[in-house]
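Task 17 of the worksheet. Students: predict the tertiary structure of the chain below and write it out as structure tokens. Keep your answer in the requested format; marks are given for formatting as well as content.
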Amino acid sequence: MEEQREGRRPRREGRRPDHHRHHDRRPDHRSEHRGGPPSPASHGTGPELTNERILVLPGDEIDARGLNPGYGTYREGGKVFASVMGIVSLRPPIARVIPFSGPYVPTVGDMVIAIVMDVGPTYWLVDLRASHYAPLHHSGTPWKIEYGECGEYLRPGDSIVVQIEGIDPTSRIMVTMNGDGLGKLSGGILQMVSPTKVPRIIGKAGSMIKMIQQYTGVKVVVGQNGRIWLDGSPEGILKARKALQIIDVEGQRHGLTDHIKLFLEGKEDG
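Model answer:
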């Protein structure tokens, strides 16, 4: 697992550098709970949500009538088929397949945790765990920045919460730091998981991540790109990290939620 470089544990910032009198936007945790666990298809009379977890292989037909094909699927002859091996997820109006593993595929609207890699006079280059870096223009921040001042606000190695704003035909990714739940992160650590396991980590209506926060007392920000920010006591962070590692490795396990709860209660080993 990767994690943010050690030794940098300032608190989450609420201000710009001292010589400015403006405020950073803090990530608010309403943005943590986007999505939920895979909701499998039914092979009955039409698509419906069940507790059954349906595994599909590339080329398998998915009962997705009335839904549009999403990631991991394609439409052919009026029917929807899986393009990857994984678990069927029906979340109207989209049918998709959650693969067991794979890289982060940016989607417009995703909230992700990015790391600043380089600074220009009017922009920063940030790493999203995607195929290439994305530029963050100073106009995509809540700050009023003069030409050449970008380095006074964000520096290489800083972690920020941004949203995927657009993807052009050349696959160039555009991001913004303007919006609720977006901004600079300070303190804490970054824990990495497979992006495909993020829905399981969040849980239905945010249930899994809420449970982890409740039992550990740790603040959590989940990026759709598989970067997760944790801040709290060393003991709480250690337990939260272990819970995330279990989900990352055993994400397809039946009864995973109960297993994580018992682990957090100290009744089961990880």
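Marker's comment: The chain has three domains: 29-33+106-185, 35-100, 189-264. The domain at 189-264 is CATH 3.30.1370.10 (Ribosomal Protein S8; Chain: A, domain 1).
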